[in-house]
Specification:
The chain is α+β, with helices and mostly antiparallel strands. The protein contains 5 helices and 12 strands. The two termini are about 15 Å apart.
């Protein structure tokens, strides 16, 4: 993954340029959401980039929960605290909170395991749209606003039975969408696999906004635009 190419760390100050975040989204995550374009007015750093940097910096614990509370832009300096045995808060210089981390169990600094988890989680996460989310929306007869699609990355978690491994893969186990008016809560559960054996599980949660009745033609247009960007920018 060469994660060091996608951020700056000055003492305890973590920051990202627009180009670094955009390159990670497109070249690593396969994420062509326009909000990760360098010239986007709504630009934000991919949550998967922040997750990847954090576990490379601190290592991993058997159980970790990441709750995202704010979108990071290129003018934000995040202050990385000392490693804690249980909970950590990632905030900026104005004490605005962006990420909280709960952790427990044994700790590992095993670089191959950390890189494998980050790489395969990012690959799994990038499949959410359109491969997982669109069938879910169709099933529940709702969809995001096609003119301003917004999917908010709320949280992710995982729990490993053992850290005595070097490689890991992720397989979707089940998915769910709970719609309430114009808001939808999506849960993606996944299994963590090592050499064909389940060694843990995890969950990714997202929020869909601006929901309306599902329209296949409009959603096909959104997917078509997304795929055109992917072919043009990949």
């Amino acid at each position: 993954m060469n994660i060091e190419n996608y951020f700056q760390l000055d003492n305890s100050r973590l920051s990202f340029t627009r180009q670094q975040a955009s390159d990670f989204a497109k070249k690593v995550a396969g994420d062509f959401n326009p909000i990760h374009d360098p010239d986007s007015k709504r630009f934000c750093v991919p949550g998967d980039l922040l997750f990847s940097v954090i576990i490379h910096h601190y290592g991993i614990r058997q159980k970790m929960i990441f709750n995202f509370s704010g979108m990071v832009s290129d003018n934000v300096n995040l202050l990385l605290p000392e490693c804690s045995d249980e909970n950590m808060l990632i905030a900026d210089e104005n004490d605005k909170k962006y990420l909280s981390i709960e952790c427990s169990g044994s700790k590992s600094d095993n670089a191959p395991l950390i890189d494998s988890l980050a790489t395969h989680y990012v690959e799994f996460s990038s499949q959410a749209f359109p491969h997982i989310l669109v069938p879910l929306m169709s099933e529940h007869n709702v969809m995001i606003n096609p003119d301003r699609p917004l999917i908010i990355y709320e949280s992710m978690s995982f729990e490993l039975e053992t850290l005595d491994i070097d490689q890991i893969q992720l397989n979707l186990s089940n998915s769910d969408l709970q719609a309430d008016g114009k808001r939808g809560n999506v849960t993606l559960n996944y299994d963590l696999i090592n050499n064909g054996h389940k060694v843990g599980q995890g969950c990714k949660r997202m929020v869909l906004s601006g929901l309306r009745p599902f329209d296949k033609q409009q959603m096909d247009d959104v997917i078509g635009y997304y795929n055109e960007r992917k072919q043009m920018l990949a």
